[in-house]
């Protein structure tokens, strides 16, 4: 997993899972704490995430809210969009461009 960017936009790539969760959490919390306004999280280079990785995203979302910021997801890959819809998290998280639920293939 790799994260690059600053306190306004981060690009996450690779796998966001139990092995990379601690490093990702640290990077996201630092970005939230050090900036102002929206924090854009570009997931277009993300290969996969597991429940732990999704928990890291939700933790960053909650922390951003407490800091008066908003976490915005950009470039969410289709398989991860399906997971957000299945867990109904697409209703809670800010997703740039939204998710066309009707256009996602049924699983």
From TrEMBL:
Pfam families recorded? STAS_2
Q: Which GO terms describe its molecular function?
A: anti-sigma factor antagonist activity
Entries under NCBIfam families matching the protein: ant_ant_sig
Gene3D superfamilies in the record: STAS domain
- STAS domain: which residues? 1-107
Query: Which superkingdom?
Result: Bacteria
- What is the protein named? Anti-sigma factor antagonist
User: Which family is it part of?
Assistant: Belongs to the anti-sigma-factor antagonist family.
Organism of provenance: Streptomyces misionensis
Record's signal peptide? none
Looking up SUPFAM superfamilies in the UniProt record yields:
SpoIIaa-like (SSF52091)
């Amino acid at each position: 997993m790799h994260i690059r960017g600053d306190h306004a936009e981060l690009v996450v790539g690779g796998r966001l899972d139990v092995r990379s969760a601690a490093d990702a959490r640290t990077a996201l919390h630092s970005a939230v704490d050090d900036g102002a306004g929206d924090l854009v999280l570009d997931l277009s280079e993300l290969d996969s995430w597991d429940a732990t990785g999704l928990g890291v995203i939700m933790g960053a979302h909650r922390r951003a809210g407490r800091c008066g910021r908003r976490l915005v997801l950009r470039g969410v890959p289709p398989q991860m969009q399906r997971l957000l819809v299945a867990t109904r998290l697409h209703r809670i998280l800010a997703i740039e461009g939204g998710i066309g639920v009707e256009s996602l293939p049924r699983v």
